[in-house]
Specification:
- This protein is an alpha+beta fold.
- The chain folds into two domains: 172 residues, no CATH class; 211 residues, Beta-galactosidase, Chain A, domain 5.
- Helices cover 32% and strands 22% of the residues.
- The protein contains twelve helices and 17 strands.
- The strands form four sheets. A six-stranded antiparallel β-sheet has the order 8-9-16-13-12-17, with no helix packed on it. The chain has a five-stranded antiparallel β-sheet with strand order 3-4-5-6-7, with no helix packed on it.
- Strand 8 and strand 9 form a beta hairpin.
- Helix 2 packs parallel to helix 6, helix 3 packs antiparallel against helix 4 and helix 4 packs parallel to helix 6.
- The relative contact order is 0.08.
């Protein structure tokens, strides 16, 4: 049984770890491209024996775990140039800690390395590689938590506890009211129900009045109906990079109307970077600084957009002259561009349209230009779809996103949701 299948069988309780020995057969003598499932399977084996005995393992199984730990420690730790900036290096040292804890060895070297990687990858709780890998690593350390607490004394666990709690809160505020996380960074939308994860969102983040939570790589705005993520990735490099200087994600009443683009798999992104890793695929600005190379060089200087969440809507201001892109509702059988009628909207005019339960209203001081576009959105592992969009160009543009059932939207939008212009 390979490590991937073994992990899911262990997690669902269909097998016990003793029948999977030797675990060393999953550890190859050469660097493994994707060893995360081997890490997770070994962590589950350690957790199983800990839960069963409520104490450290002894005898033949303990000797086997020590042999597994020795072989894993000699393997390349999957870091990039020794920096430890990936989910793979995180699970590598977490696995070493679990193998130590399962036999009662409080080895400080991998434990301190694990904390250092955690502090680098999620210094304020926001996982640098995005939500998909943040969820993966959170679940891994959550499963190992009893083991880590059972061996290392409390005075050595303070830094790890702080990292874990900040990481947990970040995941709590980035999911919507139906427990679904969007694709921020490489990945796809994921839900609590599918992941065996239950992270309650504190009541203060679901109040009527908007609340703002700031991180280095994003700003999250929430109230009882809305979740708005202003994704402004600015931290250092990591294994899974995803350029996005000022992207916007919006959930209204449990539906991600503006989802992240993500990528169906890492290989598909590498094979088609023009599809998955370009500004045109983001909900937001289409500036040249958001191309991967420029974004990495100038990410600290980016920040031309402001976002304000109100009770019933969102106001997005783009302070520079540029193109922005927003989704629009697909209208079967009718050519979107014909309905638009004109390619340029004259001075001090606006454009408005509907997308699901939301209405978009864009205006600019010196007039705007709009045209039909599209974007690719990840819907699941190896799954994606192409959605209709509109690109708008103007100076100092202000985009109002209102709930169609709110008083603010009354009389402002075409009832059929067509794109329209007006003097």
């Amino acid at each position: 049984m390979d490590a991937n299948k073994a992990y899911w069988e262990l997690r669902s309780g269909k097998v016990d770890p003793y029948g999977l020995a030797p675990l060393t057969r999953w550890i190859k003598p050469w660097p493994q491209w994707n060893p995360i499932w081997m890490h997770r399977a070994i962590i589950e084996c350690c957790r199983y024996s800990w839960d069963e005995n409520k104490a450290v393992s002894v005898g033949e199984w303990a000797d086997h775990l020590r042999a597994t730990r020795k072989k894993l420690a000699s393997q390349w730790d999957t870091t990039l140039f020794g920096r430890g900036n990936s989910n793979k290096s995180f699970t590598h040292y977490l696995t070493l800690c679990c193998l130590d804890a399962a036999v009662g060895d409080a080895n400080l070297e991998p434990y301190q390395k694990l904390i250092a990687i955690y502090q680098e990858m999620a210094p304020d709780g926001c996982w640098r590689e995005g939500i998909h890998y943040g969820l993966f690593c959170y679940d891994a350390i959550f499963r190992a938590w009893d083991l880590l607490n059972g061996v290392w004394p409390i005075h050595q666990r303070g830094a790890l506890i702080r990292c874990f709690l900040a990481h947990q809160e970040w995941l709590a505020v980035t999911k919507n009211h139906e427990g679904v996380w969007p694709a921020v960074g490489d990945g796809w939308p994921e839900s609590e129900a599918d992941l065996w994860i239950d992270i309650p969102t504190p009541r203060k983040f679901n109040a009527g009045e908007p609340i703002t939570i700031e991180y280095e790589d994003m700003t999250v705005h929430r109230n009882k109906d809305w979740v708005v993520i202003h994704n402004h990735r600015k931290s250092g490099p990591c294994y899974h990079e995803h350029c996005e200087g000022d992207g916007i994600l919006v959930s209204y009443k449990g539906e991600w109307v503006l989802p992240g683009d993500g990528c169906p798999t890492w290989f598909r992104k590498v094979l088609a970077p023009w599809k998955w890793d370009r500004p045109k695929n983001h909900w937001g600005s289409l500036r040249s600084e958001e191309w991967p190379v420029f974004w990495r060089l100038f990410r600290r200087e980016l920040g031309w957009r402001t976002v304000e969440l109100l009770r019933n809507g969102v106001i997005i201001t783009d302070v520079l002259g540029e193109d922005v892109q927003w989704p629009t509702q697909n209208v079967p059988g009718i050519e979107f561009g014909m309905r638009l009628g004109v390619s340029h909207i004259s001075n001090r005019e606006f454009a408005d349209w509907k997308c699901g339960p939301l209405g978009f209203h864009v205006e600019a001081a010196a007039g705007i230009e709009a045209k039909v576009s599209h974007a690719n959105v990840t819907t699941g592992y190896k799954k994606s779809k192409r959605v209709s969009a509109v690109r708008v160009r103007g100076q100092h543009m202000v985009t109002n996103v209102w709930a169609m059932d709110s008083p603010e939207a009354s009389g402002q939008f075409d009832p059929d949701g067509w794109l329209a212009s007006s003097s």
